[in-house]
Amino acid sequence: MRSSPLLLLGAALSQAAPNCPPLGPAFQKPTSLLSDPIIKDALANLTSIFSARDNDNSASVLANSTSWSIEVFSTNPDSPTLWEWHHTAPELAVSNTTGVKKVDGNTVYRLGSLTKVFTVLTWLVQDGMAKWNDPITNYVPELREAAERARREKDPVRNIPWDEVTIGALAGQMSGAIRDYGLMGEMTQQYDQSDAVALGFPPLDSSDKTLPPCGAWPLCNRTEFFQGLLQAYPSYAPFTTPAYTNTGYQILAYALESIKGDKKFGDMMQDSVLNRLGLNHTYYVYANESVGVVPGNASDAGWYWQLGDENPAGNMYSSTTDLSTLGRSILSSTLLPPSLSQSWLKPLAFTSELYAGLSTPWGVRRIPHPLYSPSTAKRVVDSFNKAGRIGYYSSLMTLLPDYDIGFSILIAGPAIPGNTNFNLADILGRVLLPALERSARAQTSNIFAGTYTDPNRNSSLRLTTDAQRPGLGIENWVSNNTDMQAISVALSVGYNPIQGSIRLYPTGLETVRQDGSKKVAFKAVYEDIGLPARPYEENMFSTDCGTWVSFTGVTYGTHALDQFVFELDKSGKVASLESLALRSVMRRQSSS
Ligand SMILES: *[C@@H]1O[C@H](CO)[C@@H](O)[C@H](O)[C@H]1NC(C)=O
Ligand SMILES: *[C@@H]1O[C@H](CO)[C@@H](O)[C@H](O)[C@H]1NC(C)=O
Ligand SMILES: *[C@@H]1O[C@H](CO)[C@@H](O)[C@H](O)[C@H]1NC(C)=O
Ligand SMILES: *[C@@H]1O[C@H](CO)[C@@H](O)[C@H](O)[C@H]1NC(C)=O
Ligand SMILES: *[C@@H]1O[C@H](CO)[C@@H](O)[C@H](O)[C@H]1NC(C)=O
Ligand SMILES: *[C@@H]1O[C@H](CO)[C@@H](O)[C@H](O)[C@H]1NC(C)=O
Ligand SMILES: *[C@@H]1O[C@H](CO)[C@@H](O)[C@H](O)[C@H]1NC(C)=O
Ligand SMILES: *[C@@H]1O[C@H](CO)[C@@H](O)[C@H](O)[C@H]1NC(C)=O
Ligand SMILES: *[C@@H]1O[C@H](CO)[C@@H](O)[C@H](O)[C@H]1NC(C)=O
User: Fold this and answer.
1) 375: exposed, middle or buried (C-beta count within 10 Å: 0-12, 13-18, 19+)?
2) Three-state DSSP class for 106?
3) Which ligand 9 atom is nearest residue 483's CA?
4) Does the C-beta of 309 come closer than 6 Å to ligand 4?
């Protein structure tokens, strides 16, 4: 089972293949974060970075006029809030604001499009995903008529085939419809005609049906909305390519109201989400400015500006404390069955940004983990993000399911520098992601690493961690006198590997018994990391990261060679490790 020295030499000349972990956490999710020295160090760094930022009045920060509230939250019961930072703009403090003079975790900001997270969650709590593939025309009669017209006229450039637009297409920004009707971006609502004409646009006759009679002011009612919307050309046919729409979220609310027997959408959100989570600083419509941050006066700030029937797309108000409660609830699936939450936090489509996809309404950002070099591991952390911008406000919520952690970011100011919300997330991520992975590795090592032996036969292995690699390494694996280390990799990859590697990753499968003891399942990945790497730049189709295809590829009497189960006693100490295929239970001997 030994590889030849010649092959080893060949491998050393080119770059070796990286480990390819399964998508998901590389280690047990870290706990007791506030007492973890690695996390404490990172949080101290955040504090010093943000202290300096408080005094940074450069064009990209504008700390003098911009206020922000930031919370890093976790689902860990011992550290629900990992870190928070609240910056009150000096200009706000000395102004005659009708809002708060000092921002904190309960200060209410406007959310803009971050509202859409509440909207989709309301739908999922009320109705799950069972209707996700139903045509929207089942629930919205105005669109049924439009679909009939589209079928009759056979003019796809002019008409959207609304009966091919599903609930999921609207929630996932794949309808191909117009972004807003009469609201944001509609020049005839924003400017006087004469201004538009001066810019080079032709005058529109007041009898022109395409001239919105409503929008920002007065708000469109449902009849006017559909009359206007159905005059708009489609951007694309349904499911062609992501194209962000606010109108889609307005239509979703009409559909849910119809499914639920004409209950008001806002009432359903109040019952299903806001009341159940105790979000007392979150408002679907009109928050009182006395609880909010109001830079300038309320009218300039857009504090009371309501979107009417488009409210489900962007009208809401909330605080970082409430957003964090919402985020924890999503990560720990308190309002939804776990499989529905898992499904919700998966991408539905790609975008032309290689590192990005989208879901409902999440933007999915795929982060190559900064702790690893691409030559040692393809470790990707998927983050789920929703941002918003309205009036003098900007927002962002980020979920990192690999660590059960998230960020709530709310910003207010008369001239918020572009991209501030994501800039803040970048700062948090740069400091936190390496620390979280190192903490997860150290904690996983403490709990699981060590030598395991079967007292009844010559069977044993060692579990280790490696600063360059994700997961727990299996080393010196002997099974009943044979070198299972080499045999298992050879069986899995189908040849004698140049440099075998076996690493274990958590599956998330846990059985907790009444007395607190538990079984925890891990997946092994068997790889030949002595093969040459296949970088993207040189390989259009070949990959060196197809691990998911090989799971349970080798079984012995039904049980997979790559499935391992740890037994933990009620104090959380690991007692043993079972190889299912080998029917072998090895007891943990030591942590070395
Ligand atoms: C914190 O900052 C110090 C000094 O810049 C750096 O050495 C250390 O690695 C940082 N720690 C974390 C966890 O970011
Ligand atoms: C910041 O705001 C305070 C209060 O309005 C003002 O006194 C100070 O001059 C401002 N500083 C800068 C750099 O604009
Ligand atoms: C605030 O109000 C006081 C009293 O009405 C007025 O004297 C002062 O100029 C105002 N300050 C600002 C910044 O508008
Ligand atoms: C919507 O507005 C139009 C024009 O103002 C009005 O004629 C119509 O009755 C309104 N429809 C509803 C359902 O309120
Ligand atoms: C929210 O308000 C309700 C009613 O006033 C109260 O019972 C509840 O404890 C509050 N929840 C939180 C999280 O403050
Ligand atoms: C906002 O709250 C203040 C104080 O609680 C109250 O006096 C005022 O009437 C409220 N404003 C609105 C628009 O409800
Ligand atoms: C708000 O402030 C602006 C100046 O920034 C002023 O023109 C406007 O009249 C004020 N509006 C109200 C309602 O006070
Ligand atoms: C151990 O290996 C021996 C032969 O090498 C075999 O007879 C025996 O059944 C094996 N025992 C177990 C428990 O695998
Ligand atoms: C256990 O098996 C390994 C692998 O075949 C062998 O090297 C070792 O000597 C054996 N140990 C005992 C105590 O038999």
Assistant:
1) middle
2) coil
3) 4
4) no
Closest among 245, 246, 244, 247 to 225, alpha carbons compared: 247
Q: Is residue 264 classed as helix, strand or coil in its secondary structure? A: coil
Residue nearest to atom 6 of ligand 2 (CA): 91
Give me ligand 2 centre to Cα 101, in Å.
16
Q: How many CB atoms lie within 10 A of CB 543?
A: 12
Whole-number pLDDT of residue 10: 40
Rounded to whole angstroms, how far apart are CA atoms 489 and 561? Answer: 10
Contact yes or no for 365/433 (Cβ under 8 A): no
* Residue whose CA is at the smallest distance from ligand 2 atom 1: 64
Cα(181)–Cα(310) distance, integer angstroms: 9
Res 6: pLDDT: 38
Comparing C-alpha atoms, which of 259, 255, 260, 250 is closest to residue 224?
A: 250
Q: Which residues contact 48 (CB under 8 A, 6 or more apart)?
A: none
477 alpha carbon to ligand 9 midpoint, in Å?
10
Residue nearest (by alpha carbon) to ligand 8 atom 12: 480
Q: How many residues does the chain have?
A: 592
Atom 8 of ligand 6 has which residue's CA nearest to it?
A: 288
Taking residue 175's Cβ as centre, other Cβ atoms within 10 Å add up to: 28
478 CB within 6 A, ligand 9: yes
- Nearest CA, atom 8, ligand 4: 223
Q: What is the pLDDT of residues 385-444, one digit of tens each?
A: 999 999 999 999 999 999 999 999 999 999 999 999 999 999 999 999 999 999 999 999
* Closest listed residue to residue 357, CA positions, set 370, 368, 345, 369: 345
Question: Within 13 A of 171's CA, how many CA atoms are on the CB side?
Answer: 31
Sign of the CA dihedral 244, 246, 251, 254? positive
Token pair belonging to 77: 């019961």
